[in-house]
């Protein structure tokens, strides 16, 4: 037994000597290489850095993962090593990219950044070539490198919150470190999209805490980073089916916090884009969980003032749900009426447009359930003094499907709409709205002239009754004023206060 141990000792020293010699040879080779991955000035630094990488790797990766992994100089090119050594070289280069740059020495820090950038470019090219094979150690090293470089805490937000429903007009803020971050995102996207990636092994490292940290990055103010995150999260959702319920729940929690607490989040539009494609893949009939997501997550998203930033994506998600189950249109319209804006004309324009899209897909039975409250709200929009809102409400009659719904239910809808049209024709200040009002009244007469005349007569009766009631109130007040004028003392008389009694026994 002792002899066997003694035989192993010189072999380890020879192995380390061979690694050192390989490192020196690789330094000389890298100095003459055409792609400039490494130069002679970094030879000594790479050798010392490699020893640090070995210690870090053995501390981070479990022994079962690192067993049999032979470290390779990270400055070598993939073309200069054999195929069995490429996975080990891949891990060495990933570990090299895990190290933070030296901020105390600007020149040295710049050189390290350039080295890291060239290494990342080489890794992206290697993975995109399709010849890579990822074992468990490589998957763990990839997730570790991405976590170190991407997961970070964003600074506090000092930009003021927008008070309107329009999109944010402020200039987007771009991350100065995006050139390095983009390479990491490209590498991770290539890695996730790799066809031969074993999802059963990868899910050990792309786990729920990893996904939560990834979702936190949607708070980034750099739109380029959010676009990359959107693509990566969508690929994770497609490849790791075991994480799908967790992703839906985590995104729901983000939206709950946004709607009911902060009303501040930069990535709501991107998250809704992801869910737009997810909803389109839901099986029919819809699960109760998915219907709850519509009612508790998507519909309350109409409440925040900044709805204009993500309204297009939100409408797409809602329409996808109604396309899967037309009966959900009733719930959506009811939710819209609940959050309908009163003083925000831009949001009102969005809500009218979304209502029109829903009405194009609604069935006659579901329409009859919500037509009374909906067209009461439409009548208020017709009378809006904001001419764009009034104009947009009149445009509903130009939609053939909406007009068909109105025709079949004109006995209920005409009496709701006609008084608003009559008020517009008498009082509205904008000429375009007046012209649209005339056209709409003409259209109603063409659909059913008798019903239109009946609505007109009923409106005249109501106006006459209102005038009579107004005259009665006027005469009553005149008599009261006259009576008060004849008896001024009685009018100014104040009865004395009664002495207070103590209800509690002393």
Automatic annotation (TrEMBL):
Name a biological process GO annotation.
signal transduction
For bias type Basic residues, the affected ranges are 1-13
Question: Annotated region Disordered: where?
Answer: 1-38
Recorded GO molecular functions are:
protein phosphatase activator activity
The cellular component terms of Gene Ontology attached to this UniProt record, alphabetical and capped at eight, are: cytoplasm; protein phosphatase type 2A complex
Annotated Low complexity bias = 20-36
Please give the Pfam families that the UniProt record associates with this protein.
Answer: B56
Q: Which domain of life is it from?
A: Eukaryota
Q: Which family does it belong to?
A: Belongs to the phosphatase 2A regulatory subunit.
Q: What does this protein do?
A: The B regulatory subunit might modulate substrate selectivity and catalytic activity, and also might direct the localization of the catalytic enzyme to a particular subcellular compartment.
Q: What is this protein called?
A: Serine/threonine protein phosphatase 2A regulatory subunit
